[in-house]
Write a structure and sequence with these properties.
Blueprint: H1 2-21, H2 52-56, E1 61-69, E2 72-75, E3 83-87, E4 92-96, E5 101-109, E6 112-121, H3 128-141, E7 146-150, E8 153-158, E9 161-167
Length: 168
């Protein structure tokens, strides 16, 4: 019993130490993708300044409905909630990947979006199919370069990848 408790305490200290030792770099002055260039605007994805679309990305809980990796559209597994929240006050995003919670940095300029990674997540175990979905989601969300909001729907786009969310 003592050995199990000791291992649990050691694990918690290790995880706490990992988060305590990480540093957060100051955001670049202008959004940049990993190649260092400013992302090109996506035609049709512009949200005029002051429009309701540009105001509603942040401070809303978004629920993932589907995502694509290239041509392959995947629906979110039944009874699985993958969420995303953009927090304008600190330039951070966070949510649930289905099993684990995650966090990362982001920057918005018009309809352009930069997810500053890598995204950090907890490391809990869950059903293998949900863990696989979570891993794919966290990989795809980091490719986002632009967004589009129509009504209560959010679409993140980057390269050949697309993520489709609905407002909670």
């Amino acid at each position: 019993m003592k050995k199990g408790i000791s291992l649990s305490v050691l694990f918690l200290l290790l995880v706490a130490g990992m988060f305590a030792c990480t540093s957060v770099a100051a955001p670049p002055a202008t959004p940049q993708n990993p190649s260092g260039s400013t992302p090109a605007p996506v035609p049709g994805a512009e949200n005029p300044p002051g429009s309701s679309a540009s105001l509603s990305l942040e401070g809303v809980t978004w629920i993932l409905e589907s995502f694509s990796e290239g041509e392959s559209l995947k629906l979110v597994l039944q009874d699985t909630d993958i969420t995303l929240v953009f927090d304008k006050s600190n330039g951070r995003l966070h949510g649930s990947g289905g099993v684990n919670t995650y966090t990362g940095g982001y920057q918005v300029a018009g309809a352009n979006l930069v997810i500053r990674g890598p995204i950090a997540s907890t490391m809990m175990a869950g059903p293998q199919n949900v863990m696989d979905q979570e891993s794919r989601y966290l990989t795809v969300v980091q490719t986002a370069e632009s967004f589009k909001i129509e009504g209560k729907k959010l679409q993140l786009m980057g390269g050949r990848n697309t993520l489709n969310f609905r407002q909670k």
